[in-house]
């Protein structure tokens, strides 16, 4: 920093991002006379905390820009479909490049968003000189910005969404493991635990492979199949057994569990490393020999960003290639060994799901996609749902929860022949037991949060993230004003923003819960509030709780059916206080909301007490 002080006196605009040490700005002579622009939310918050005047990237992004960013990212993540790559990146029929598209998108959207902001900044200030961080410097060079001065020493970040796995011991105690170490420990532990519960596959029953299923959540399904079918749990990411409950369910249900040690030996590992080295060399060669093609493909408004994308893709590839080769070989062996009648998945976008679906289709096995949540069913949501892997593109059948999603699927062009209305085995116990809680003492307001992510460009604007934190603060303040207890349950996604410190600064008595199932909390709440659309709204309605969705984002997917039905009150920052106050004070209003939500629950969830049996019956026909 000191060496560059003489070079930066004449720079006119300072560009910072989350990788900046913004305190370095305080060392810049006359920094307060320069224009400072924060290109992401974290740098904005850092500058704000130091009371440094600045602008944010939102000022340089239009609504059309955000749409273009999303569309461009959708194009870029399919780089593996370019003819040369769709031919050369194939291992045993699987396009390895496609396996990482979710992670690639997560890293790509923030990069493209910053590039669009930079393009608009240089259009507005064509003759200015810019002082910037190494990462923004790398992006700006792609845009042919000549007057660039670099400060700071934090280089490009090569970390990705699934590099680490968070292991939560208690609500306040957790630690991160590298993905590699997590998988090693998982495989080692399951080698011993599975021996204690392992069941033989009966040749007299049909066999079904369940990919990445949580045995606790799907306990009803596992128990229903106990004497009728062989269920084989094939969990390569999530553990099959992690506590006494999961151990007991698998043992009692006689569900079989895939064991890593049954397949993997020294010869297997040697083969994986051979193929890994071969594909590493092949990717490097493909990138080098097709530089012109990729330079053109990865272009924005006449500027190629291939140099940046190449760094990201190469790093992601090298981190995931061993796992990809391993999982391809394992999935093929498992399917050939057990020859299941069908494969059940709850998403098409996961690395393991993509691989299993490929081999299942190749072997002529049916692939059944299980609905696992309340999906955004607005008319324009189809492309996002395809990305999320929750509609049957590669699957033969989707087992949906009820009439509502069935109608949405048909609106999106999914043929009726691919749709079966089954219901949800996740909620059978909730329907059975909800009457026990009707007169339970309602102890608190329950607030389920879901933070903005990196998947969608509009979520990266400072305004969206400020509004999210404003919504948390607003609910906390209203609850205090109404003299009510508040419990906040964070979304379980690994990338979820931890708001604990933020909330405790408002009121240390507010509970923030990070671990566990929200279904254990819902029966005891007075009213239920969620940020945006969430499956938790439906779950609260099952327990006949008045529900509110506090909306601060608009993805332009159209209005979800749960909002169209009026079963859930939709609020914004301006009217949330009046809606909460009225709902808590007016028992008639509460009853009306519950009556409407009961109708919606019936529409959305069929076979409420028999969904597992219905699914078992359907599987028998496959």
Description:
45% of the residues lie in helices and 14% in strands. It is α/β, with parallel strands linked by helices and 622 residues long. α6 links the parallel β6 (130-132) and β7. The termini are far apart. Residues 1-5 have low confidence and may be disordered.
Shape: globular
Main pleated-sheet profile? 7 strands, parallel
Instruction: Write out the strand line-up for the largest beta sheet, numbering strands in chain order.
Output: 12-11-10-15-16-17-18
Q: What's the mean pLDDT score?
A: 92
Strand content: 5-15%
Give the fraction of residues assigned to helices: 40-55%
Low-confidence stretches: 1-5
Determine the number of helices (DSSP H or I, runs of at least 4 residues): 23
Radius of gyration: 26 Å
> Which class do the helix and strand fractions yield?
alpha/beta
Overall strand count: 24
**In whole angstroms, how far apart are the ends?**
67 Å
Which characteristics define this entry?
single chain, 622 residues, alpha/beta, 7-stranded parallel sheet, 24 strands
Topology:
Elements: H1 5-8, E1 13-16, E2 35-38, H2 41-49, E3 55-56, H3 63-76, H4 83-88, E4 90-91, E5 94-95, H5 101-124, E6 130-132, H6 134-142, E7 148-150, E8 164-168, E9 174-178, H7 179-197, E10 207-211, H8 219-224, E11 230-234, H9 244-253, E12 256-257, H10 266-289, H11 291-297, E13 299-300, E14 303-304, H12 306-338, E15 342-345, H13 351-362, E16 366-370, H14 382-388, E17 397-400, H15 403-411, E18 419-421, H16 428-433, E19 444-449, H17 462-481, E20 486-490, H18 500-506, E21 511-513, E22 525-531, H19 535-542, E23 547-550, H20 561-564, E24 569-571, H21 576-585, H22 587-604, H23 611-621
Parallel strand pairs: 1-2, 1-6, 2-3, 6-7, 10-11, 10-15, 11-12, 15-16, 16-17, 17-18, 19-20, 19-22, 20-21, 22-23, 23-24
Antiparallel strand pairs: 4-5, 8-9, 13-14
Helix pairs in contact: 3-5, 5-12, 10-12, 12-13
């Amino acid at each position: 920093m000191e060496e560059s002080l003489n070079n930066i006196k004449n720079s006119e605009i300072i560009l910072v991002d989350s990788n900046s040490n913004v305190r370095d700005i305080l060392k810049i002579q006359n920094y307060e006379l320069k224009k400072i622009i924060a290109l992401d939310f974290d740098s904005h918050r850092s500058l704000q905390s130091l009371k440094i005047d600045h602008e944010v990237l939102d000022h340089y992004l239009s609504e059309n820009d955000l749409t273009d960013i999303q569309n461009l990212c959708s194009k870029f993540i399919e780089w593996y479909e370019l003819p040369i790559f769709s031919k050369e990146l194939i291992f045993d029929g699987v396009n390895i490049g496609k396996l990482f598209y979710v992670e690639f998108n997560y890293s790509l959207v923030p990069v493209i968003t910053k590039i669009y902001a930079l393009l608009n900044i240089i259009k507005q200030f064509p003759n200015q000189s810019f002082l910037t961080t190494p990462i923004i410097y790398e992006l700006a060079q792609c845009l042919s910005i000549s007057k660039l001065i670099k400060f700071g020493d934090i280089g490009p970040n090569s970390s990705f969404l699934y590099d680490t796995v968070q292991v939560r011991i208690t609500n306040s105690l957790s630690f991160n493991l590298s993905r590699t170490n997590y998988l090693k420990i998982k495989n080692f532990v399951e080698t011993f635990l599975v021996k204690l519960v392992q069941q033989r596959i009966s040749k007299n029953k049909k066999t079904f492979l369940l990919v990445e299923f949580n045995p606790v959540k799907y306990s009803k399904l596992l128990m229903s199949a106990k004497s009728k079918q062989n269920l084989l749990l094939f969990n390569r990411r999530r553990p099959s057994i992690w506590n006494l409950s999961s151990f007991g369910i698998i043992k009692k249900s006689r569900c079989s569990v895939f064991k890593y040690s049954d397949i993997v030996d020294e010869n297997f590992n040697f083969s994986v490393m051979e193929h890994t080295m071969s594909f590493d060399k092949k990717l490097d060669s493909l990138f080098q020999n097709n530089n012109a093609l990729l330079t053109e493909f990865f272009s924005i408004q006449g500027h190629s960003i291939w140099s940046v994308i190449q760094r990201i893709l190469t790093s992601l590839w090298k981190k995931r290639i061993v796992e990809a080769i391993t999982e391809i070989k394992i999935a093929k062996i498992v399917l050939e060994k057990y020859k299941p009648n069908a494969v059940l998945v709850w998403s098409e976008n996961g690395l393991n799901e993509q691989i299993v679906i490929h081999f299942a289709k190749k072997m002529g096995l049916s692939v059944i996609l299980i609905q696992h949540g309340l999906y955004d069913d607005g008319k324009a949501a189809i492309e996002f749902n395809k990305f999320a892997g929750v509609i049957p593109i590669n699957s033969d059948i989707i087992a949906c929860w009820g009439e509502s999603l069935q109608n949405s699927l048909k609106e999106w062009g999914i043929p009726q022949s691919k749709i079966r209305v089954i219901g949800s085995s996740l909620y059978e116990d909730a329907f059975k037991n909800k009457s026990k809680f009707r007169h339970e003492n309602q102890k608190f307001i329950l607030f389920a949060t879901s933070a903005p992510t990196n998947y969608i460009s509009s979520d990266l604007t400072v305004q969206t993230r400020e509004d999210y934190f404003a919504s948390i603060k607003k609910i906390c303040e209203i609850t205090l004003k109404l003299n009510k207890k508040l419990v906040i349950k964070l979304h379980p996604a690994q990338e979820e923003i931890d708001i604990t410190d933020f909330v405790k600064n408002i009121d240390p008595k507010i509970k923030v819960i990070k671990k566990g199932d929200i279904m254990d909390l819902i029966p005891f709440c007075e009213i239920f509030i969620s940020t945006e659309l969430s499956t938790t709204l439906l779950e609260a309605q099952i327990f006949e709780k008045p529900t509110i969705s506090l909306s601060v984002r608009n993805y332009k997917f159209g209005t979800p059916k749960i909002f169209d039905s009026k079963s859930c009150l939709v609020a914004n920052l301006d009217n949330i206080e009046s809606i909460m106050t009225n709902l808590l004070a007016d028992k008639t209003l509460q009853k009306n909301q519950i009556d409407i939500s009961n109708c919606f629950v019936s529409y959305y969830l069929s076979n409420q007490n028999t969904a597992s049996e219905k699914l078992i019956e359907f599987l028998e026909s496959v």
